[in-house]
Specification:
5% strand; 434 Repressor (Amino-terminal Domain); 14 helices; two-stranded antiparallel sheet; mainly alpha; 2 domains
């Protein structure tokens, strides 16, 4: 994907600095009257906790903005407007600010919340299964999103590394899409919603949960992109006809004349059959209606992040309903601290890695 010009990035850095409250000489920014904060957060595919931390406000403040009880003002509104206009570039600029202003290691507060066995046993068999499966699904999707971030943090100067790293990222994005679609189709749509709507479950969703499930239904009713990727590429292999159609499209792409290669190494973990993904991704491009490989990749990532944002909000509402029904009003959390954690946007996973064991020489 073509990177933004240095002038654009410099201007955005100045705008972000201004939005954070820093003094920037000679800068003029149009401040919009309203910003759809909920839409901005979901466009970035972040939970309320992660998004509020990113923009430097409390979760309570963010919640008030999203629910319309209060409106962001001044610098906060500027930053949100910038994110609304171009989330990808502004995120890169925000990451730059993190790199420049923070240490590379951080302390993370973690709260251990014991779940009373009495409450778990009072659930019906169906409720208990759903309670654990929802947590399991969110664990999977959150891990996949973290992996995508780790994989896209790296900045390679070597062209071979750029190519094989792109394959690695695309594989994880496809897997994430498959898990997201399975979560919606097999867990929420087929099992959770019918039992909620029929009254089989004791839990009651709050208004936020009801609104989010309506948005999920609307989204999946209008877009079939995730199902196409899941059914043909994520958890299934395309048939011969599909593969040969994709090969024909790839072979006619003049930009790929030098890309029909394998990149082999002595270690299996460092080997990439690059040409295979060149063909597969042309099939994905056609399924996604993309005009280029870069546009298709961005479209897939945007779709996955948007739906994950909706799912995360829905899961929060469901878990809150379970807590109200089956657990004490005041749960006890035991705080601990994980020290020396890297910043999410500073850590990267390379494609190539030496296999020599620590302490030994090759």
């Amino acid at each position: 994907m073509k990177k933004p010009s240095k002038r654009i990035v410099r201007g955005l850095r100045e705008a972000v600095a201004h939005a954070r409250g820093d003094k920037v000489a000679g800068i003029r920014i149009h401040i919009p009257q309203t910003v759809n904060v909920l839409a901005v957060r979901r466009q970035m595919g972040l939970s309320q906790a992660a998004f509020s931390q990113r923009i430097g406000v409390s979760t309570g403040t963010l919640r008030n903005w999203e629910q319309g009880r209060r409106k962001p003002e001044g610098p906060a509104r500027v930053l949100l407007a910038l994110l609304q206009r171009n989330p990808r570039i502004v995120q890169e600029v925000l990451h730059y600010g993190v790199h420049k202003k923070r240490n590379s290691e951080h302390d993370i507060d973690v709260y251990r919340v014991p779940l009373a066995m009495e409450g778990l046993k009072r659930m019906s068999n169906e409720e208990r299964a759903l309670f654990f499966l929802i947590g399991y699904a969110e664990n999977q999707i959150a891990l996949m999103q973290k992996l995508v971030i780790f994989l896209t943090n790296a900045d390679y100067s070597d062209q071979v590394e750029q190519k094989v790293a792109a394959v690695q990222t695309q594989i994880i994005v496809r897997s994430m899409i498959g898990i997201i679609f399975e979560t919606w189709e097999k867990l929420i749509k087929a099992r959770l919603l019918p039992r909620l709507e029929s009254g089989q479950l004791k839990i009651k969703l709050n208004e936020r949960g009801k609104t989010t499930i309506a948005e999920l239904k609307n989204h999946f009713g209008q877009s079939s992109l995730l199902s196409k990727i899941r059914n043909s590429f994520a958890f299934h292999y395309p048939n011969d006809e599909y593969m040969n159609k994709a090969f024909k499209a790839a072979s006619n792409d003049d930009d790929l004349k030098q890309e029909w290669n394998w990149y082999l190494a002595n270690e299996r973990t460092n080997t990439c059959y690059f040409a295979s993904d060149v063909v597969l991704f042309h099939g994905i491009m056609e399924a996604a209606g993309g005009k280029s490989l870069a546009e298709t990749q961005q479209k897939l990532m945007h779709e996955a992040q948007k739906v994950h944002g909706l799912l995360a909000d829905f899961f929060d509402a469901v878990m809150e309903a379970f807590m109200k029904e089956y657990f004490p009003p005041q749960l006890t959390g035991y705080r601990t601290m994980v020290r020396g954690a890297p910043n999410l946007y500073e850590f990267s996973i390379p494609f190539y890695a030496a296999t020599t064991e620590i302490g030994k020489t090759a």
